[in-house]
Amino acid sequence: MSKQLYKVFDEVEFQAQLLAKYWNNFSTEISEHLPDTYQPEIQELSSKLDNALSTLVEELRNPTLTLATTGTTSSGKSTLVNLLCGAEIVPVAVSEMSAGAVTIEYSKEKSLIIHETPGALWECGEWRGIREEKIYQRLYQVMISYIENREKEPNLACPQSTIFYPFRLVKESKLELPQGTRVKILDLPGLAYVGDQGNADVIKQCREALCIVTYNSAETDAHKVKSLLQEVVQQVKDLGGSPARMLFTLNRIDVFRADKNWPETENRFVEKAIRDIKNELTEQLQEYTEDIEKLQVVKLSTWPALLALQIQNNDDIYSAEACKKADNNFNGLIDEDILEVLPRNVQKWSRHDRNRVAEALWQKSYAEEFQQNLRGHITQHFPQLVIPQIIERFNLSAGNAVTEWATQTTTAILNSSEERYKQEYENISRIRASLKQFLEISDTNLKQPFEKLDTKVKQVLGKQSEDDVVKYIRTIISELQQVEPYDELREKLFPLYSWENEFQKGINQVLEAVAKSLETGRVDLDSPNLKRANVLNVNLLARNLNRLVGLGYKASVAKEGKTMEAKTEAEKNKLKQLNDELNELAIHLNIVIQDVLKQISTQELNRIYQAVSELFRCHLSYFENEANDIAPNIAIKFPESELIKVESHLTFNFRFKAGFPITKGNWEEAVQVERQKRTWYTLWIGKKTIYETEYRTRSSDNADIPSVENLLEGWVMQAKGEDSERVNQVARWLLEQIDCLKKNVDKVQSDIINRYQERLDKANQEITIDYEKQKNVWQPMEQKAQNLAEEFSSLGKIWKVN
């Protein structure tokens, strides 16, 4: 990036100040030729512009830079937060410590707020002037309390904390930010906790944040690596928006230093990790294919980097403790010529020794490289997140009104003579008719594919067609992308048809974990999507599975199924118990899958809303250009941020049932019956005891126990059975949004034309100009109005930096 960050903001402010001058010059000049009746309008516009300019300047000088951190399981995210802060204030542990979100705001004074949350079982309050170790201890106790109690208290809200701290990111990283920039670090929970409602609310706040996603480079198990890649995708979806604003960090990269072939193995891992992350993201986020290709991925080892900072601390005891940790864990990062002269007792290391060790750790942990990449990432992406919204608010407040008034007023005056006035009235009628016709045509082009989809879904639901509606929606979107202007969108509409696949993948992952647990007889529900469900519900499912395993529903029975004939009361009870537990399985799976699908729905619906916004933005831009071709001197502007908003929300529901029928049957039981029989050798007088076999009919409980495959396949089929209804919801919702857009566009353009007509009427009544005045005054004035409109329009472009 060629320009310093603060200069980008300065240039936008400077250009906005120039716009105010251009308007002042224009309004002063035009006032000399207008009746006094125009003065209130000019004064009102000037006042609006002054207020809008003051707000713009205030926002440009005092923007908020938010860095949101998240990461895969055991990726060292908390250590990264501490590295950014330059002190150990966020708890770090081998097990997952993230519980609730922690916001760290830059401040010269240190303080901690643990916010009141429903049912909090920990101390809440505010502590000013608090030391780093006390911040750490209080947060640790809060997180432990939450983790230990959330299973017993399912409605326990996750903790929310705010730390005010003079963190290193601002003090020493040489960020060239506008002087009044407010900087905060948002330490988001790990994937295992994003399901908590409080955390979900925080995640919504970071839609305009720059994000750092940490990845655990130390994991070598292929199955777990695949799981980590899925976690990366889930977190990118949770954070929302383009992955371009996310810096991916391959943490714990120091593990490769122990390899005989280092740095070859490290480079090979980095290349593969980058390729795998990009492939995984591209597969599931095709709408961001171009951004993903340019993804920023950097290497880092957060713990030795943090130790490097701690070793240089002026507190000798604190420094010595960091030296001890470095000596025990990261000798491989310290050059041999340094190690050879170091005393074995770290207490005896001189300040020179410590500085040399710190420098080695800092460089070989890639901390300096990471810091430079982070600085460049902020410089490149921070303006894009902040400035467009500031400019749009400025235009909505005053910019659009100023350009519209200048353009329409000068055009109206040029058409104010009686002869031209009548012609212009006819022209306005033609413009209205042309715009109405064009709006109808463009609206039809936009709606037609979704109307076809709606018709097809109704046919399928009415059993008049057996077409696959999920495939059909993909066909419909492809057809739309062949039509101008939607051909420019490329993969941006991918979320409109990829959501159903994500649901099926989520369901399958849960069911696969269940199937594997039953077939192996060892319950293991450690999969990315199951981590998203409420931990209490997952634990209940695990207990249910353990009971099924205890009843013998495992191994070959689970894999192949079994026909059972329960003859005794004990066998009948066991069969009933098995049936009850399988029905319980359906109940627990319902709850867990609902949890999982709720999270997936949130992600996918956000992507759908974003895709529809892109579609509407494209539609509006095309319509605005065409409208201004039809009516070039009326200054038609559509406020994108207001018109592309989607209204109402979609919801998806899933229900499952399970179990198996137990039928009554009969079976023949062989029974030995004692009889007395007279014998011939006693002349039929004496009797002898004999035993004969009789067959007696008994009742039994019979059942075909389904295999896990058949059992879970049934759930998959049940989920797919609701495809059509979900597509139906989407189709109807899309048509509602398009109708709403058309209605709003029609109103906006109608209001603009009405204002022009009013200005034409006023000019006709109050201003009379001859040909010479028109040629010498108003034609040049009209050109100045158009120049002014172009200047205001250029404000949104000048901030972009090459």
Concise account of the structure shown:
Helices cover 60% and strands 11% of the residues. With 802 residues, it is of the alpha/beta class.
Task: Write a structural description.
By secondary structure, the chain is of the alpha/beta class. 60% of the residues lie in helices and 11% in strands. It has 24 helices and twelve strands. The protein has a nine-stranded mixed β-sheet with strand order 4-3-5-2-6-1-7-8-9, with helices on both faces. The protein has a three-stranded antiparallel β-sheet with strand order 10-12-11. β11 and β12 form a beta hairpin. It is flat and about 135 Å long. About 3% of the residues have low confidence.
What structural keywords apply?
60% helix, 11% strand, 24 helices, 12 strands, 3-stranded antiparallel beta sheet
Radius of gyration (Å): 36 Å
Let me know the average pLDDT. Answer: 85
**What's the number of helices?**
24
Helix content bin: 55-70%
Q: How large a portion of the residues is in β-strands, by DSSP E?
A: 5-15%
Largest sheet properties: 9 strands, mixed
The rounded distance between the terminal residues' Cα atoms is 6 Å
Widest β-sheet, arrangement of strands: 4-3-5-2-6-1-7-8-9
Low-confidence stretches: 191-195, 660-671, 680-684, 695-700
Structural class comes to: alpha/beta
Globally, the shape reads flat
The count of DSSP E runs of length 2 or more, i.e. the number of strands, is 12
Secondary structure topology:
Blueprint lengths: L4 H27 L7 H23 L2 E8 L5 H9 L15 E6 L4 E4 L10 E4 L3 H18 L10 E6 L2 H5 L9 E6 L9 H9 L4 E7 L5 H18 L6 E6 L12 H21 L4 H5 L2 E4 L2 H10 L4 H14 L6 H4 L11 H14 L2 H48 L3 H44 L7 H12 L14 H26 L14 H16 L4 H6 L1 E5 L2 H62 L9 H4 L19 E16 L8 E19 L2 H14 L1 H44 L4 H28 L4
Parallel strand pairs: 1-6, 1-7, 2-5, 7-8, 8-9
Antiparallel strand pairs: 2-6, 3-4, 3-5, 10-12, 11-12
